[in-house]
Design a protein that fits this description.
Number of strands: 16
Helix content: 10-25%
CATH architecture of the largest domain: Sandwich
CATH class of the largest domain: Mainly Beta
CATH topology of the largest domain: Tumour Suppressor Smad4
Shape: elongated
Distance between the termini: 52 Å
Structural class: alpha+beta
Radius of gyration: 20 Å
Strand order of the largest sheet: 6-5-16-13-8-9
Largest sheet: 6 strands, antiparallel
Oligomer: single chain
Number of helices: 5
Mean pLDDT: 92
Number of domains: 2
Length: 281
């Protein structure tokens, strides 16, 4: 019996349209039902329906978008990389058919990734809930403007933070914005959360790693000198107000990403960081 397969395609990538139609033709020949979700820029419409698997054609950003939409539905993601070298999208366009057959036979790895639920509370009311695979960032809307945040976990008060912003990252997101801001690199399948201040006013404010079962609670203090933004996975932006409370905690579901296991992660890490491991290191 054929599968219901969704193709999420970033048309900004070179050869994306051609590859989309090639994959569609091959899969339909094999008896699968194909549903197309091509987009340029920011995706606006997500097709309804139950799918057995979703292919992404793009880079890591396309996988982030797909994860927010599909992980709550327990739909696995098959990430074909037609972008630059990425940490998540690991299937080469020339190898997708072989890897897909391996998935059907149960002989390819499926990486289970922690996601965060990000709740926005205002004056005691829950206004919005978003999900992220990489990170949630609270920052000033202007350039190099310090904001004041009160930060605590479910079990400890971390006190006031004065910084350009704050990154709350998953292990998957540890190699994204967080590492550029001096944060640690975590194994992508760890269950932990990174709290990483961006350019803190107090040098003793350093990145922290806490257990994934903890909540991270951030309150926007009063009398800010700049507008404050919440950015989810670098793709969704929400304007915050003074007194807003953001509660971040592990989501009730994991993202299932095919052929993007720890072995792939460390291979990409060595390449991106130029780890030679030899006498010339």
């Amino acid at each position: 019996m054929g599968l219901r397969i969704l193709l999420i395609v970033n048309l900004h990538k070179a050869n994306a349209s051609r590859l989309m139609h090639d994959i569609q033709s091959i899969l339909e020949t094999k008896g699968h039902s194909i549903y197309l979700c091509p987009f340029e820029g920011k995706p606006e419409i997500f097709p309804n329906g139950g799918y057995d698997i979703a292919f992404t054609l793009g880079g890591d950003g396309t996988v982030l978008y797909a994860s927010r939409c599909l992980a709550p539905l327990s739909i696995p993601i098959f990430p074909i990389n037609i972008g630059t070298l990425g940490f998540i999208a690991a299937v080469h366009p020339e190898q997708w058919e072989q890897v897909f057959d391996q998935w059907l036979n149960g002989t390819v790895s499926v990486s289970k990734r922690l996601m965060l639920a990000v709740e926005l509370w205002r004056e005691g009311d829950l206004l919005d809930t978003r999900y992220c695979l990489n990170d949630a960032v609270i920052s000033a809307s202007g350039i190099a403007k310090i904001i004041r945040l009160d930060v605590r976990t479910g079990s400890a008060d971390l006190g006031p933070f004065r910084a350009d912003g704050l990154i709350i990252a998953t292990p998957t997101g540890s190699t994204a914005y967080s590492v550029a801001a001096g944060g640690p690199i975590l194994d992508p399948e760890l269950e932990a959360i990174i709290i990483n201040p961006i350019c803190p006013f107090t040098l003793s404010n350093r990145p922290m790693v806490i257990p994934a079962h903890e909540q991270v609670i951030v309150e926007v203090e009063r009398e800010q000198r700049s507008n404050v933004l919440l950015t989810v996975d670098g793709q969704e932006v929400i304007q915050l107000k003074e007194g807003d409370k953001i509660i971040m905690q592990r989501a009730s579901f994991l993202a299932s990403i095919i052929a993007s296991d720890r072995k792939v992660f460390y291979k990409v890490l060595r390449t991106k960081l130029n780890w030679s491991g030899g006498p010339d290191a």
